[in-house]
Amino acid sequence: MTTVSPSSAPTTSRLPGASVLLALSPTLLSVAWLVSKLRWIWNSQPEMQFGWIVLMLSAYIVWENWERRPRWVLRPTLLNGAVAVAGLALLGLVQVYQAAFGTNAASLCGHTLGTLLVCASNLHYAFGVPGWRVFGFPLLFLIVAVPMPSAIQGPVTHGLQNFVARVNVEILNLSGIPATLAGSLIHLPNGTVGVDEACSGIRSLQSSIMATLFIGYLALRANVLRVVLFVGGIGIAVLGNLVRSLYLSFTASSKGIASVSGVHDAAGWSILLFTAVGVGTLAWYLARLEKISLEDPQSTPVDAPEAS
Description:
mainly alpha
């Protein structure tokens, strides 16, 4: 008669439904807790309402990947134990901070990091390292829906505002329209146009990042092409908002400052459509390029899977 130690126990690809829920309960509960913290921001701040879309897309990726999940391991190790302790300790610290100072973007980032550590530990316990490869992306994708701390968002937003305003002034002057720059304000002969946070492009930038990460993960196999799509999407978002602000500046110069309010929202929706079409077109082109490269045995893209 032979005995099998727990560490060498055979793995299985199937578990009863109740056992699946029990094995993955730390991930399910920690993500549900995080969503309960984030939902008030998603509901109350218009620029963060896309968080619900991010949550649905993450759930969709998990559902798509479930059929190719690794074999169950269900093995506690020193690694997943240490990661779990780190995640729980961080979550505890965040709760103490929120009790003292309230909920803000920085504490939500800490809560998100703690949640990801708990999920990483749980996935390693359930599936081993392959669990990270299969389910890591949809969990990390949730970071897109977490508000950035002011120490990060402030410089990014102000940088975009100043960049858009500065390029606007240069183009206006080259077009024969005298314009001067004061921070993010554009002084025209008949008034002043301000490049506010919405016009800076931060919202379309966040949407573009969400779209490029999601489409790149599903539609592309080469990591280098995913990076190209990500960078290209950011460029499209910035270009779109530059065109939008230029249009508003030309409108203010030719028809008066009061006329800007009548076309402001329409311009915003138009640029959102432009960004969506631009990202979709770029993704289609890169996917087609990758397909052609894979069909050509003499041309293999970078990071493409090797034939077994």
